[in-house]
Specification:
Low-confidence stretches: none
Helix content: over 70%
Shape: elongated
Oligomer: single chain
Strand content: under 5%
Structural class: mainly alpha
Strand order of the largest sheet: 1-2
Length: 245
């Protein structure tokens, strides 16, 4: 709350100093400053506490269950070599691949979200400008022109929104595919040692449960990438405004 209060006050002071609010309208940089100050500042700060708590919980969970994988899983003979704590290695590799795929496929999502937010601001500004100039528009008979302008802004918003939806749809394959595979992978990895008699069925189930918990912790990035993209888009827009003023 204090952070948002300070940041909003600082941006307003800079925006109003030296007639920058007037000069800023002459270019594209820092467009729609009122939307950025009112909404983007809020969206750039509000989620940070939840992100911090979630990341802390994920880290503690990962460390706890990695210890179970290390102790119960033991080592595995692979091609004449012994792989120590092979279940830990497998969990970290699998989690890194899933997170890397998420980052690769969703790398453009923050930009798409920022473009959608900009279109939202332009559409809202067009409607606000119409309300503020309602008398002049009515006297000049400009309702049709304003209707076309509003529809053009709405079409731009819909197009950019669809781009966000399309990018989010691609991410869905990774998120849900990962959820389906996670319970299966540890069973496949533990099967050789179970068949050789090194692991009991109870130990296999314990490893599978610990593996899933570790993946849930590592997949924090995967599960929260959409929220992180929204936060990053708003944070970038705030930074752009701060640089522009």
């Amino acid at each position: 709350m204090h952070w948002r209060e300070w940041l909003t006050g600082a941006l307003v002071d800079r925006w109003l100093a030296d007639d920058r609010f007037d000069r800023l309208t002459l270019g594209e940089r820092g467009s729609n400053p009122e939307y950025r100050i009112a909404d983007d500042v809020r969206m750039a700060i509000d989620p940070l506490i939840d992100f911090a708590i979630g990341l802390l919980n994920a880290s503690i969970s990962a460390l706890t269950f990695i210890g179970i994988l290390w102790g119960v899983g033991g080592r595995l003979a692979l091609g004449g070599f012994w792989v120590p704590a092979y279940m830990v290695v497998a969990a970290l590799l699998y989690g890194s691949l899933a997170s890397g795929a998420t980052l690769w496929i969703g790398r453009t999502l923050p930009r798409r979200v920022a473009e959608k937010n900009e279109a939202e601001a332009r559409f809202r500004f067009a409607l606000t400008r119409l309300r503020e100039n309602a008398e002049a528009v009515a006297l000049l008979g400009g309702a049709d022109d304003e209707r076309r302008a509003a529809r053009a802004r709405l079409a731009e918003l819909v197009a950019r929104w669809r781009a966000v939806v399309w990018q989010s749809g691609r991410l869905t394959w990774i998120v849900h595919g990962n959820a389906v595979l996670v319970p299966v992978v540890p069973l496949l990895l533990a099967t050789p040692k179970h068949l050789s008699g090194e692991l009991s069925l109870g130990a296999v189930m314990q490893l599978a449960a610990a593996f899933v918990q570790v993946q849930m912790a590592i997949a924090w990035l995967v599960e929260n990438w959409r929220a992180l993209a929204n936060w990053l888009a708003s944070a970038r827009r705030v930074v752009e405004l701060a640089e522009a003023v």
